[in-house]
Amino acid sequence: MKYKVFLDDVLNPSDVLDRMSDSQYLHEYETADWVVARSYEDFVNIVAKNYLEKKTLEFVSFGHDLSEDATDKTGLDCAAWLSAFTVELNQVFPTFEIHSSNPNGRNRIDNYINTFCNGYYN
Q1: How high is the pLDDT of residue 119?
Q2: Measured between alpha carbons, how far is 65 from 61 in angstroms, rounded to an integer?
Q3: What is the pLDDT of residues 92-113, one digit of tens each?
Q4: Cα torsion at 13, 109, 100, 67 (round to 10°)?
Q5: Which residues of 65-77 are buried (b: 16+ CB within 10 A; e: fewer)?
Q6: C-alpha span between 76 and 61 (Å, rounded)
Q7: pLDDT value of position 49
Q8: Contact criterion met (CB below 8 Å) for 50 and 57
Q9: CATH fold of 2-121
Q10: Could you give the CA distance from residue 78 to residue 38 in angstroms, rounded to a whole number?
Q11: Whole-angstrom Cα distance, residue 113 to residue 86?
Q12: Could you tell me which of 13, 88, 9, 14 has the C-alpha nearest to residue 43?
């Protein structure tokens, strides 16, 4: 069984449809079958629990700012954790998109994942 995770502290997948209109993955946002993670802890717990239940993480939509507190973990922390998790368990990094409206956060997540994937999978 496959699943997808939408990571955002406030928004839901339907809230970002307009923002993602140019995405090649727009169809993912138009469906209702998302697991929503509101924090780093939610994200880690959801992915780990589903792994133990033999479910495959197929798609992740990353938000960056997961709270108004600058000391809290962000979507970048989730991307870093997921990278380590996939390596440790010899999994493939899932398809992903970044829906964050924070341009710096968006770029940091994208650069991190692409650097990781290019270094590990190539």
Answers
A1: 66
A2: 13
A3: 899 999 999 999 999 999 999 9
A4: 100
A5: bbeeeeeebbbbb
A6: 12
A7: 97
A8: yes
A9: Rossmann fold (3.40.50)
A10: 11
A11: 12
A12: 9
pLDDT at residue 122 in the model: 53
What's the gap between Cα 17 and its chain centre? 16
Per-residue pLDDT of the chain (122 residues; tens, 9 = 90+): 999 999 999 999 999 999 898 899 998 888 879 999 999 999 999 999 999 999 999 999 999 999 877 678 999 999 999 999 998 998 889 999 999 999 999 999 999 998 887 666 55
Specify the residue for token string 């697991």. Answer: 35
Q: Letter for the amino acid at 76?
A: L
Query: CA-CA distance, 82 to 96, in Å (whole number)?
Result: 11
Q: How many CB atoms lie within 10 A of CB 35?
A: 17
Query: Around 35, how many Cα atoms within 13 Å sit in the side-chain half-sphere?
Result: 19
Return the domain boundaries, the chain.
Answer: 2-121
